[in-house]
Amino acid sequence: MARETASARRARALRIVRLLAKAYPDAACALHYRGAFELLVATILSARCTDKKVNEVTPAVFARFPTPTAMAQADPAELERLIQPTGFYRQKAQSILSASQDLVGRFDGSVPGTLEALVTLRGVGRKTANVVLGNAFGVPGLTVDTHMTRVNRRLALTQHEDPEKIELDLMELVPRKEWTIYSHRVIQHGRVCCDARRPRCEQCPLRAECPWPEQHGS
DNA sequence: ATCCCGAGGG
DNA sequence: CCCTCTGGAT
Q: What global pTM score does this model have?
């Protein structure tokens, strides 16, 4: 594909948005949660871990520590044991405890609804903050995780590796109201089709808009 | 740049 | 065995 002009790329991005909507009309957050606090905890646990695995451990976690107040007083060893299958369990337990203590101490026991406040919590970066904003508060947010990074790079909607730079590129290309649902659809697409190891370009709904198959002979 | 860390697939 | 899975802190 010859070098693409900015306006051509913008038009292509909009076609991709439409194709994704048709291919994944029901895409949604795959984590199981009730309310902002549970979503925050589930999203911290989802780092480098499948959502499926997270959903297996969270019912017991939420049953045992249902509120920020309860979680803030949790025994670290018990929490570590409950979340152990998700990996990185010491850091994650520490993050969940510390973040919960901050919710109680600095945010009146509830999850704040702004990016600036959320990222001050231990274990919460832009990606996690945007998941909470988009799904618990209805504030548009692009959640640049491993799937968003891989798929958008293959689509040549960004050249960057740094998640924050990718987020800025996508903010220019994807209509603001679509940010949250676009993230869900790209993540689903990354799981079922645009696989990390071997993308299934033959059956990809975005094939006509993607330079990857031509460049990699499939 | 490196570390955390378990589990599943090829 | 190596890579990947809804990252973040040091």
A: 0.95
